[in-house]
Amino acid sequence: MRLSRYFLPILKETPKEAEIVSHRLMLRAGMIRQQAAGLYSWLPLGKRVLDKVSRVIREEQDRSGAIEMLMPTIQSADLWRESGRYDDYGKEMLRIEDRHERDLLFGPTNEEMITDIFRSYVRSYKDLPLNLYHIQWKFRDEVRPRFGVMRSREFLMKDAYSFDIDYESSKTAYDRMFVAYLRTFERMGLKAIPMRADTGPIGGKLSHEFIILASTGESEVFCHRDYLDMAAPGEGVDFTDAAALADIVNTWTTPYAATEEMHDEAAWNAVPEGERVAARGIEVGHIFHFGTKYSEPMKAYVTGPDGKDVPVFMGSYGIGPSRLIAAIIEASHDENGIIWPKGVAPFDVGLINMKPGDAECDVVCERLYAELQAAGQDVLYDDQDTRAGAKFATMDLIGLPVQIIVGPRGAKAGEVELKLRAGGERETLPVGDVLRRLSA
Amino acid sequence: MRLSRYFLPILKETPKEAEIVSHRLMLRAGMIRQQAAGLYSWLPLGKRVLDKVSRVIREEQDRSGAIEMLMPTIQSADLWRESGRYDDYGKEMLRIEDRHERDLLFGPTNEEMITDIFRSYVRSYKDLPLNLYHIQWKFRDEVRPRFGVMRSREFLMKDAYSFDIDYESSKTAYDRMFVAYLRTFERMGLKAIPMRADTGPIGGKLSHEFIILASTGESEVFCHRDYLDMAAPGEGVDFTDAAALADIVNTWTTPYAATEEMHDEAAWNAVPEGERVAARGIEVGHIFHFGTKYSEPMKAYVTGPDGKDVPVFMGSYGIGPSRLIAAIIEASHDENGIIWPKGVAPFDVGLINMKPGDAECDVVCERLYAELQAAGQDVLYDDQDTRAGAKFATMDLIGLPVQIIVGPRGAKAGEVELKLRAGGERETLPVGDVLRRLSA
Q1: Nearest C-alpha of chain A: how many angstroms from B116?
Q2: Which residue, A50, A208, A254, B88, is most buried by CB atoms nearer than 10 A?
Q3: Neighbouring C-beta atoms of residue B418, cutoff 10 Å
Q4: String of b and e for B9-27 (b: at least 16 CB within 10 Å)?
C-alpha cells in the first residue's frame, strides 16, 4: 500500500480522553475512532490488525477441530426466556423492540442460540463431538464504557461451543480449547496465564480466564512465577489425543494461579514468597464448562450408544479480538509508539522513501516495493513528500516490525538501511540483500 | 475437510415455508437456518460461501483503489438528525434506546457516519480522491421479510463511499465503482445489467442498479438484448484512467436499460421489438451519486486548490453479499441442487469415497485429499459410510464444481471418476492425472 493513497489519519496531539496507553496509541496511530460512547470505527490500519488477529484465532480454532459458522447479531428474546436468562441478564443486555413489537436483543453471547441450532439438527452421539464457533460483533451495554476498545459496548468476539455425550468427553473438549488458547496467545506474542475464574452469568463450575499481566489491568491476579517461563505447546500437538491434552492442561494448572474472585489465601501462602507474583491482569480469553445448564431447560437431548436420551454436555470459549488488540499494545509498546508482534502487525514492512522525486530513491523503492510484495510481504510504502522527522515518527508510532529506509546517498551506492522496530537495531545492506535478510 | 468431522445438516424434506428455489436449496443444503423472522444463522457451508463472495468483492474494491475499514453496527441517532434522515427513514429503521435512554439505531446504511469520519480528519483537496468501504451487518426492519436471505432483516452489505473535490472527479469515482461492479459480478458467474434506477432514501440524481434477470425477481425490468452478450472489462483495466473508465460506462449505459420506476415508454418503443427484453430482475448492487446531499448539512468541507472551502462531493456503492448468494443460486441450479460458479463455491472439489474401510479406496482417497489440498484446492472429503445414492444426492445438492468418485473397482485399477457438476460430464482417469486435470 502506498501511503499517498492510504487513509492513515495520524493524530499529533495526545487525546485527552484516553486514560490508558493502548487507547492513546490506537487513537494517535489512526486505528480507531469513537463514534459514540463505547462504539468505535476501525479505521483502515486498525481493520488490518483486527483481520490479522482474527486470522490467528481462526487458524488455531480450525486446527483444534472447531468448525466456523456465523450467527446473527440480533436474537429473539424468546430463546433467552427458555433458558431463564432473559430476566437474569440485567441492564447490560441491549433490549430492542421491532416494528411488530416483538422483543429482540443484540446478542451479548450465544449459548441459547447455538443450543437451539444443535437441538434442531443433532440427535445421536454418533455426530459428536462437535465444536461450532463464530466471530461476530456482540453488544454489552456497559454502564461506563472506557479504555477504548478494551471495554467498549460493541465488540468483536470469537465464541466457540462444544457438544459432547458425557462429562468426560466434554472435559476433553474443554482441554482442547484450553490448549488452542495457549497456542493462540503465544502466536500473538502474549504471555497469557490460565487462572481459575468465576463463571458469572454464563454458569457452570469449571472456568479459566487467560490473563496477561499489565499494570493497567482491570483486576488483581495472583500466580506462581513458574508461569512466566512456560512455553505453549507447538504446532505438532495432537488435538485428538485426550490424554496428551489433559497432560498439558495439568501442567498449566498445577502451579497456583487465580483471579481476585477465586483467590485462596491458604493456597497462596503455601507458595514460597519469592515465587509469588501478585499483579494486575487483563483478561484476554475466558472458557467455561457448564455441562447441561442450557441443554436441560432447552431440551437439547441426544441418544447415547445405549439408546437412552441424555442432555448434551456443553462448554463455551471466548476470545475478544478487539479487546485483545488493546491488550497486545499494553504489553508491547515504548515511548515512541506501538511495537507489533510479527503475526498481527498491520503491515510486515514499512518502506520509507526519504526523498520522493529523487530518481535513485524512487527506483530503489519501487524495486523493493514490488519484490517484497511478490514475496508475500505486506508493505506500507511511505512515498510522501514530508519531513524526515515526521516519517520516522509515524513509522515508529504505527509499530511495523521492520523499517527499510531509502535515502539519496545510500540509493546512489545501492544501499538501504534496515531498522527493527522492537530493539531499534539498524544495519546498512545492499538493496539486493533485503529480500534474503527478511526471509531469514 | 472430512465430512465425518464437518457439520453439514442436509434436509431430506423440502421446507414448506420456502417460496423460491434459492431459499429451498439453501435450507436443504444446510447453508442457513432461520432464527427468527428475517434473521438467519449461516451454517458452516453457508459461511464458506459468504467468505468466498466477500473475498471477490474485497479484491475488486481493493483493485479499484477503495480502502477497507469497519464501522460499528450500532449508530447514534444524533448523526441522523444532523442529515435530516432520522425522521424520514420510517419504520424500516430499527430504533433502540440504551440503558441511559440515549437514542441509538442499528445502521441500515452509513452515509452519515462516514461523512462524520471524513469531516473529522480530512481538510484538503490534496487528500482526495478517497474511497472508504466496509463489509458489515446491516438491519432493515422489513414489514414482511421473506425469500430467505434474499429479503432478510439482518443482512451483510459492502458499502463504499467516495469523496471528491468537484462534480467531475466524483463522476470518475462513480465510474470506477461502476466498472469494479461489472468485474465483481462477472467473476461470480453472473450477468448483471446496470439499469438507471430510482435513488430512494439515499438521495441524489444519478443511480444505477445492477440487475440479474431471473423469473423469481422482485421487480420488472426492461433492457436491450445487447446486454446479454457484453463482456465485463478484464483484469488489466486502469482504474486511474478517467477517460477509459468513462468509455466503459458509456458502452454499458448506451443501450436501453431501466427498472420499473425509471421506465420510459417512449425510449422503450424506440428499441426494435426483437431486441427488447422485458423480464423480472433481482437487484444485486446499487450505486448512487448524490454530490453534496450529506456534506452540506453535516459541514464536511474541504479546501480546494484555490483556497476556498467547498462541501465534498460524494457517492455510495452497495453490494449485499448475503442476498447475492441467493441470487447466484437463482441463476445457477438444476433439479438436483445448486451449481456453484467456480469463484464462490464453498469447496472446489468433492471427493467421494464409495466404500470407506476398503483398503484401496481409503489409500487413493487419502492420497488425493492430501495432494489436492497441498495444491491449494479446498476439498470436502466424503469419508462417511453411507449409501451411494445419498452420497451422490448430497454432492449434487451442495453443488461443488468438481466431484471425484473413488470406488473399489476403480481404486484397484488405479482409476477414479471425475464428474463436472455443471454439465454432468464424466470421465475416468488415472489417479496420478487428477491433479493435472484440475489445474488445467
Answers
A1: 9
A2: A208
A3: 18
A4: beeeeeeeebebbbbbbbb
Alpha-carbon distance A229 to nearest alpha carbon in chain B (angstroms): 36
Cell reading at B115: 461523512
Contact A42 B69 (CB under 8 A): yes
CB within 8 Å of A348: residues ≥ 6 apart: A342, A372, A377, A378, A379, A400, A401, A402, A438
Q: Which residues of A touch B106 (CB under 8 A)?
A: 74, 96, 106
CB contact under 8 A, A72 and B120: no
Q: Which three cell numbers stand for residue B174?
A: 462513480
Question: Which class does domain A3-338 fall in?
Answer: alpha beta
pLDDT value for B160: 98
User: How far, in Å, CA of B370 to CA of B376, rounded?
Assistant: 10
The SS3 assignment for B11 reads coil
Confidence of residue B216 (pLDDT cuts 50, 70, 90): confident
The model's pTM: 0.96
Region for residue A399 given its phi and psi (left: phi exceeds 0; alpha: psi -120 to 50; beta: otherwise): left
Name which residue leads in pLDDT, A349 or B196: A349
Classified as helix, coil or strand, B343 is helix
Task: Please calculate the CA angle B111-A326-A396 and round it to the nearest 5 degrees.
Answer: 90
Question: Best of B10, B52, B71, B95 to disrupt the A interface by mutation (most A CBs within 10 Å)?
Answer: B71
Interface of A with B in 308-337 (CB under 8 A): none
Please report residues of B whose CB lies closer than 8 A to that of A9. 120-122
Q: Using the beta-carbon criterion (under 8 Å), do A41 and B71 form an inter-chain contact? A: yes
Of A9, A74, A75, the CB nearest to B139: A74
Report d(CA A321, CA A150) in Å as an integer: 10
Asked if B27 and B15 touch (Cβ cutoff 8 Å), the reply is yes
Q: Which of the 8 DSSP states describes residue B192?
A: E
pLDDT tens-digit profile of B132-163?
A: 999 999 999 999 998 999 999 999 999 999 99
- Closest by Cβ to A65, choosing from B5, B94, B113: B5
Cβ <8 Å between A39 and B75 = yes
Instruction: Count Cβ atoms below 10 Å from residue A24 Cβ, excluding itself.
Output: 20
Q: How far is CA A18 from CA A22, A28, A384, B356, in A?
A: 9, 10, 29, 60
Give the A window 161-220 contacts with B, CB below 8 Å.
none
Structure confidence at residue A266 as a pLDDT band (50, 70, 90): very high
User: A14: pLDDT confidence band, cut at 50, 70 and 90?
Assistant: confident
Question: Of A418, A417, A351, A415, whose CA–CA distance to A382 is shortest?
Answer: A351
Q: Which chain A residues touch B7 with a CB distance below 8 Å?
A: 67, 69, 121, 130, 132
Phi, psi of B234, deg, nearest 5 = -80, -175
Considering chain B, tell me which residue range(s) the CATH 3.40.50.800 domain(s) occupy.
347-439
ipTM score of complex = 0.96
Write out residues 32-71 of A within 8 Å (CB-CB) of B: 33, 35-37, 39-44, 46-47, 50, 65, 67-71
Degrees to nearest 5, angle at CA B378 with B377 and B383: 115
What are the residue ranges of CATH 3.30.930.10 in chain A? 3-338
Buried (b) or exposed (e) across B244-282, using 16+ Cβ within 10 A?
ebbebbeebeeebbbbeebbeeeeeeebeeeeebebbbb
B347-439, CATH topology level: Rossmann fold (3.40.50)
| Residues 410-429 of chain A whose Cβ lies under 8 A from any Cβ of chain B | none
Q: What is the CA radius of gyration of chain A?
A: 24
Q: Does any CB of chain A come closer than 8 Å to the CB of residue B73?
A: yes
Q: pLDDT per residue over B303-339, tens digit each?
A: 999 999 999 999 999 999 999 999 999 999 999 999 9
φ/ψ region of B38 (left if φ > 0, alpha if ψ in -120 to 50, else beta) reads: left
